[in-house]
UniProtKB/TrEMBL annotation:
Keywords: ATP-binding, Helicase, Hydrolase, Nucleotide-binding. PROSITE patterns: UVRD_HELICASE_ATP_BIND. This is HelD family protein. ATP binds at G199, G200, P201, G202, T203, G204, K205, T206. Residues 178-627 form the UvrD-like helicase ATP-binding domain.
């Protein structure tokens, strides 16, 4: 006769089997629907069918993601006092009208995470079903009666302990079966406004942030699907570590980026020294960058020499500097970015050259036309006012001895950080992003000319032309149209006879030159009204894109989740704020772990940097990573007044050893660490480099202290705390972060005296 447990497991297995059977059916249906074509399903007269098909498609997509993760789909059951029972899982499954499995994010599943004996929500029993794929392995029942309330109010204690004991892999695993009450409240907080989630190390902030992303997608999929949620983490090591959590929840449409990956085309992983980070992170860098982008490019020629009407016209370095200053003033007054300023630059140079022409009888238009015809003027213009990319401008800093807006020492520190480097640091990324905005779009690549038949196609109304067009209207005389404009930008008026095509073309060439383009010759074309006209062949491709042809603006993010947000510098906040303009936010962090020299002292201060106001704050109190003994030791370095995290994790070993030979001691500690565990040696960035060659053992990671934030390992060997503290202004906070990475064992090795806080 099987015992009750075995019987219960068998009963649950039947339910799980039914769920998988139904899913198989849905999968087959989805494949068939895909084969049939979605249009046919959508055209069905029964609207319920369309909804069902959509559900089947969605389930199939989720299943693909879940299959890849091989996680059990069913993990919970709730029994209510009215006799009702449901099963809770990673996705919702119905058989006809009967719900077989409730999605963990559905309101009906909330009691699974919230019910306590004090507030049971009608639940009499919560059961965690421990599955390996489709096979039920074990059950953990929680009978809710008033006597059950323990000190920590842990829900599903057996399952939680089992989850905490599970061996650690290279990636973080989801916690969907064991989310705790306070975590659930944070996950399900309203999407709107800004939700700040704080808590000590290991309280599950990152987990909450990721489960919240999955929750928001569930509650408003139409709004958030397709990459409208952005999750930002501090480093690529960290984003890689957490990258499996959302797929294991069946969600793959969230953008997960590290701070070094927010600008297209750049993947930065290296951090600058605190001294450099302090300069690059400060918001005065915006002014520095503005000065930099208007300065004379290092490759620009410093003399312009042309011959006109037998006269040698020269602009020397001082004239050119003055001309550049005038272009800047003109552009700043009109909000023109440097990349859109070549037209203005041409006009200012022509003014300066004309001022040197001796001879009152000479004509200004003819002068512009003649000079404009000279290839040398255009070659000069391109070199003197080149198209600028953010990377090009930032690289000038390596060579710039005097940086407007910085004192000499800061300028030298900044320049030094670029010398001899070919890669960008994470701290450069906000500067590149700022420059992208400041410089404006690059002139567009040349577009294929419109086929002639398309030009003739016009029957009624006006069109936007793709290039300049010169045409002659019967009553108004010669008109010149510019790209993208349906109305003329210039009218010749009665001065040019309607038949004098050559004169009209000369006039138009002068106007076009003022717009920054040189005409080589003319061909036939059509104006915006479909009338025949002349189209110039330009020396350079047109930088102006027709309004209709602009690439669609990228969809903005609608929710931005920031992890380790305590560390964002003012420039990083500006970069995030640009992406979060239309977004609600979830801001996650721990001020005690702030290590950036410009980190904020409070959450309202951070939100002010982001241009947002706090809507709600949720503080997580219980730690799940660090055992209490290690948490208490780490808390010694905290500022007095900050309470250590109350840890739920049992066990843990702590050993603090003073040694003579650090390298030998590290080798010994690595040999003694259990083999089936994840092991990290954490040291200052400089020491980590040396240790990495020394500790060449597979599965043992040597991690620089600056990269360890957000990560965790079963065993941590921490090397020379005094050096970690001394390495940077917020060294104590860095030490606190390093001390709170261990899940089971922490070995602290030191040769020097320990930092005062740890001696206590
Ligand atoms: N409810 C839970 N059930 C099981 N494990 C949990 C739970 N909450 C957190 N954990 C585990 O605790 C560890 C720490 O979680 P997490 O990294 O999210 O904490 P954190 O607050 O972001 O830490 P830090 O501030 O150090 O970055 C992880 O291994 C996580 O899986």
């Amino acid at each position: 006769m099987p015992d009750v447990r075995t019987q219960e497991i068998a009963a649950e297995q039947q339910v799980v089997d039914r769920v998988y059977e139904r899913l198989e059916g849905m999968r087959a249906q989805a494949t068939a629907l895909a084969g049939e074509g979605h249009r046919r399903a959508a055209a069905s007269s029964i609207s319920g069918l369309v909804e069902r098909d959509a559900m089947v498609h969605r389930a199939a997509a989720q299943l693909r993601a879940l299959d890849a993760e091989a996680e059990g789909l069913v993990f919970g059951r709730l029994d209510f006092d009215d006799g009702e029972t449901y099963h809770v899982g990673r996705l919702g499954v119905r058989d006809g009208l009967e719900p077989l499995l409730i999605d963990w994010r559905a309101p009906a599943a909330e009691p699974f995470y919230r019910a306590t004996s004090g507030e049971p929500f009608g639940v009499v029993r919560r059961r965690v079903i421990i599955c390996r794929g489709p096979k039920v392995m074990d059950l953990d029942d929680d009978v809710l009666s008033p006597d059950d309330v323990g000190d920590l109010r842990v829900l599903g204690e057996g399952a939680l302990l089992a989850a905490l004991r599970r061996s650690r892999g290279p990636h973080m695993r989801d916690i969907v079966t064991t989310i705790q009450r306070e975590q659930d409240a944070a996950i399900r907080a309203p999407a709107r406004g800004v939700t700040v989630i704080t808590g000590g190390p290991g309280t599950g902030k990152t987990q909450v942030a990721l489960h919240r992303a999955a929750y928001l997608l569930y509650t408003d999929r139409a709004r958030f699907t397709g990459g409208r949620i952005l999750v930002v983490g501090p480093s690529t090591v960290f984003t890689n570590y957490i990258s499996r959590v959302l797929p294991s929840l069946g969600e793959d449409s969230v953008h997960l980026r590290s701070l070094g990956e927010l600008v297209d085309g750049v993947t930065a992983t290296r951090r600058d020294s605190p001294q450099v980070a302090q300069i690059k992170g400060s918001d005065r860098m915006r002014d520095v960058l503005i000065e930099l982008m208007w300065q004379t490019p290092p490759t620009a020629p410093d003399r312009l020499r042309l011959v006109y009407a037998g006269q040698v016209l020269t602009l020397g370095a001082r004239d050119l500097a003055e001309a550049r200053r005038r272009v800047r003033t003109r552009c700043e007054a009109t909000g023109t970015t440097p990349n859109a300023a070549r037209t203005a630059a041409a006009a200012v140079l022509l003014d300066a050259l004309w001022a040197r022409v001796d001879g009152p009888h000479l004509d200004r238009y003819l002068f512009s036309e003649d000079i404009g015809d000279r290839g040398e003027f255009h070659r000069f213009l391109q070199a003197w006012w080149p198209a600028l990319t953010p990377t090009k401008v930032l690289s000038w800093l390596a060579e710039t001895a005097r940086v407007v807006g910085l004192d000499a020492r800061a300028a030298e520190t900044l320049a030094g950080s670029y010398r001899g480097r070919s890669d960008w640091s994470v701290d450069d990324v906000p500067l590149l992003d700022e420059l992208t905005e400041l410089l404006g779009d690059l002139p567009a690549a040349p577009r294929a000319p419109e086929p002639e038949w398309q030009l003739r196609e016009l029957t009624t109304g006006t069109r936007h032309v793709a290039t300049f067009v010169l045409s002659c209207a019967l009553r108004d005389g010669w008109e010149l149209y510019a790209p993208g404009h349906p109305t003329p930008i210039a009218l010749a008026g009665p001065t040019i006879d309607n038949d004098a095509v050559a004169a009209a073309q000369r006039w138009a060439e002068a106007v076009i030159l003022r717009e920054g383009h040189r005409v080589l010759s003319w061909t036939d074309g059509f104006d915006p009204h479909g009338e025949e006209g002349y189209v110039p062949v330009l020396a350079e491709p047109l930088p102006v894109a027709e309004a209709d042809d602009d690439p669609p603006a990228e969809d903005p993010y609608l929710h931005v989740i920031l992890d380790e947000a305590q560390d964002l510098s003012p420039m990083e906040c500006r970069m995030i704020a640009r992406r979060a303009e239309y977004a609600s936010m979830t801001v996650v962090g721990d001020l005690a772990q702030a290590t950036h020299p410009l980190a904020v002292g409070s959450w309202p201060q951070l939100l002010a940097r982001l241009g947002k106001r706090e809507s709600r704050t949720i503080k997580l109190q219980t730690g799940y990573r660090v055992p209490q003994a290690i948490a208490d030791y780490a808390a010694l370095v905290l500022t007095p007044g900050i309470a250590p995290t109350r840890s739920y994790r049992p066990g843990g070993t702590l050993s603090v050893r003073q040694v003579d030979d650090l390298h030998a001691a590290v080798g010994e500690a690595v040999r003694q660490a259990p083999r089936d565990a994840t092991i990290a040696v954490i040291a200052t960035d400089a020491a980590a480099e040396a240790l990495a060659t020394l500790v060449d053992v597979p599965d043992v990671a040597v991690v620089p202290a600056s990269l360890v934030k957000g990560l965790e390992y079963d065993h941590v060997i921490l090397v020379e705390p005094a050096d970690i503290v001394a390495a940077e202004p917020r060294g104590l906070n860095r030490l606190y972060v390093a001390l709170t990475r261990a899940v089971a064992g922490l070995v602290v090795l030191h040769r020097q005296t320990l930092p005062a806080a740890l001696r206590g």
